[in-house]
Amino acid sequence: xxxxxxxxxxxxxxxxxxxxxxxxxxxxxxxxxxxxxxxxxxxxxxxxxxxxxxxxxxxxxxxxxxxxxxxxxxxxxxxxxxxxxxxxxxxxxxxxxxxxxxxxxxxxxxxxxxxxxxxxx
Length: 121
Fold this sequence. Notes:
By secondary structure, the chain is mainly alpha-helical. It has 6 helices and 3 strands; from the N terminus they run H-H-E-H-H-E-E-H-H. It is globular, with a radius of gyration of 18 Å.
């Protein structure tokens, strides 16, 4: 990896934020919300393996960090939609790049894992 400048050092604050954005569900939620607003159950259907509790926790954490917005829709019954915020929208290119990289490199990583597992049995 390249050298980091003073402004690019990984501080505890950076680590905490990156942990929260790159966790198991956040990337998927952000990817789903880029370009569209979704209600809670629509998100659950779009990410079928996430539990209700995990999705609730993820949405609250992303909202707290300013990545998404929770919008109350003035209909009866009152509904809530989640949408990407301006800050969160700046992540779309990075998310796409991570997904592209992982798709491109997955075969190499699987081979490396197989070699490691064979050697360390």
